[in-house]
Amino acid sequence: MPRVLCQAGGTAAWMIPVIAVLGATVVFFVLQHLSAAFSRASLLSIAGLFWGRAVQFSLGVLFSGLFILYYGYQLRIFAEFVLSTLLPSTPISAVLISMVLLNIYLAYGGLESLSRTIMVIVPIGLTVLILALTMGGSMGKIYNITPWLGYGLWETVRTGLLYTGLYVEIALFGFIAPLFRKQKYYQQAGLTTLAFSALLFVFAQIVYELCLPIATAQQIGFPLYQVVRLIRIEVFLQRLDPLFVFVWASVSAVGLAVCLYGGALTLAQGIRAPDFRPYLFPLAVLSLCVAFVPPRAVDAVQTYSMMFLLIQAPFFGLPALLLLWSKLFYRAKGDQE
């Protein structure tokens, strides 16, 4: 993602996550309003209330398919990274199948299990990430980040709004809303998530741009990994990349499991099934098929770079449409009487 942002915003790429989070915050407030108005019902349940079961079923299949498509391409990129850094002689199928099995295991316990797992990993992962990026950034040059406005102020603002999809995962709050006990927890979790994500995005992007001239930053593969490889403190400390890869893989495993969980959850909500677990394995198999579609790693990366821009339309569009419909056409039974 740092490379893609450099291609889009030039030296002002670090501003894109700041602008994008403003758009994502608007989307979250739409989700929060719908959640409060409909007793924390999921987006698909609200759609079924407005437009009937057939539409709810269709939307469930659609969003499950989008989750699985997104998940499949992330799987492929993850596997390519592991092969190029740690296991060059391992078949890609072995890496993909191993990760999918782990994701099924993590997702099977539901959101609480995923949350507890990430609570264990995050302190370690965050510490390693901050230390690695701080040491990498200390070797950067401030003039690499100039001119400050990149391709211009308005172009940077336009690009930032276009890349609101950086935070497309915030739409997951629309599907897990029934799992929150109180509305105040829902709002606190959403706003904290956006603020924390934006800080990490901006910090990583600034470090990446400090370490590499913009022409190089727009072309290099596996950006943050390359930044970590630059770390060298005399004879005392160098080659921290194996530790970084291990932590990154651990966090990615949970993130991928959340994506698989989202696909199973939306499918279950769409067909009004009582449990999402029976759909984890078949959806995982479909994801493996998607992961093998790109013939080369570069094709997977290019498609994924476009995908997260396009996928924000349905994930952000549905909440906006539901809010508009609720204001213009929907009347609760009490209001009708």
In short:
The protein has 337 residues and is mainly α. It has 16 helices and two strands.
Count every helix, treating DSSP H or I runs of 4 or more residues as helices: 16
Spatial sequence of strands, sheet with the most strands: 1-2
Strand content: under 5%
Which class do the helix and strand fractions yield? mainly alpha
Number of domains: 1
> Helical residue percent?
over 70%
Radius of gyration: 21 Å
Task: Report the mean per-residue pLDDT as an integer.
Answer: 86
Shape: globular
Description:
- The structure is a single chain.
- The radius of gyration is 21 Å and the shape is globular.
- It has a two-stranded antiparallel sheet with strand order 1-2.
- α2 (16-37) packs across α7 (153-162), α2 crosses α15 (312-328) and α6 (110-137) packs parallel to α9.
- It contains 16 helices and two strands.
- The termini are far apart.
- β1 (232-233) and β2 form a beta hairpin.
- It has one domain (10-120, 146-191, 238-336).
- Helix content is 74%, strand content 1%.
- By secondary structure, the protein is mainly alpha-helical.
- It is a multi-pass membrane protein.
- It is found in: Membrane.
- The chain crosses the membrane at residues 12-31, 43-72, 92-111, 118-140, 160-180, 189-208, 245-267, 279-298, 304-325.
